[in-house]
Specification:
4 helices, mainly alpha
Length: about 130
């Protein structure tokens, strides 16, 4: 499993989002929308698992996970503003803030990893030439 750092990070993101969703669901007395982070966390677990064991498909699934994280992070950042303007509950704010931090942090680390891999390939091509 060479270069499995980002798939493992994807799995960690999935686990963290599942924890946020389940915790929010339990604290909200069973409100079903609180499970949205857990559902997205499940998607991250699937994408990360496939990327971990299929090296040829890894870039495609990681790009998919990064796109999902970007969309979810931007949406929850928007919802933070909405909750602030509507004087929403602290539980909603907690759920949106943690989801945004997890997702946007994953995107930042993923972009850093891709840039690092590109630099490494360029340096390797220079050494071979």
């Amino acid at each position: 499993m060479k270069n499995a750092t980002v798939p493992l990070l994807t799995l960690l993101t999935g686990v963290l989002l599942n924890a946020v969703g389940i915790l929010s669901f339990m604290l909200s007395d069973g409100e079903k929308t609180a499970l949205i982070p857990a559902f997205c966390g499940g998607l991250f677990l699937v994408l990360g698992g496939v990327a971990l064991f299929h090296a040829k498909l890894r870039p495609h699934f990681i790009h998919g996970a990064l796109l999902l994280a970007l969309l979810l992070g931007l949406y929850t950042a928007y919802k933070i503003v909405v909750v602030l303007l509507e004087n929403g509950t602290a539980l909603k704010m907690f759920s949106f803030e943690t989801t945004a931090i997890i997702c946007l942090g994953y995107v930042a680390l993923g972009v850093f990893s891709f840039r690092s891999a590109r630099r490494q390939r360029r340096a390797q091509a220079r050494d071979e030439a």
